[in-house]
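Take a specimen:
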Amino acid sequence: MAEAQLQDFPSLFSLEGKVAVVTGGSRGLGLSAASALLQAGASKVFISSRKAAACDAACATLNALPNLRPGARAISVPADSATLEGVKHLLALVARETDHVDILLANAGATWGEAFDTHPDGAFAKVMDLNVRGVFNLIREFAPLLQKRASVDDPSRVVITASVAGLGVGTLGKQGTYGYSASKAAVLHLGRNLAVELGPRGITVNSICPGFFPSKMSNGLLEMAGGVAELGRANPMRRLGKSEDIAGVIVYLTSRAGSHVNGAAIEIDGGALWQRGQLDVKL
């Protein structure tokens, strides 16, 4: 049997000329992912979140990166991804600048921490709306742009930001994140369904499952759980996540290297999910 030949390895992780949309891209993991996309060669990366000022500031930071391709730029497109109207508004803003999208990062998310007995219905609904319903609406509305240049050899990519909390028990007690954990489990299964639905259309759908990464969303829980240093020492890798850990997985899934990965859920938590057979890192 003839050996398979690996063709053009230098371009395997290149995103040269790709167009990407990142929701929740103005800070935290979304901003790290957007930075990775641009530095891997993407020509346009649309940054979306609810606050226009935050999107503008993120784009200024990204556009000042020293190693971008000529003409590459981040573009501010503020919108509320929690509502169908907001998703349609985002689509309209993006469609003014491009007739296709190669990469869609469904990263916008929310959480709420409160005890079980007083956990508000409105808070649970808000988290589920953005983290699950909003993701479904986003992918459905952007599907025509994602299909525009998709092919068997070069599929378009959707990456959903889920969480290890969707794979095991999340945070319980006084700051229980019941809606968050349930939403991340739901969106993981949604991703698997959409991977099968959209694969024949030339679109892969994969999910990432971060553990604790210091960020505005997680800092409160980090402090309650003992702080960055203590949690880092308890992790099998003896540290918490950092930007490069997200960047590497995002580039892998969205480049030619990941073109046959579909329906996957990749844990990025240093192995804490499997430590002593339980979910020790709770986000």
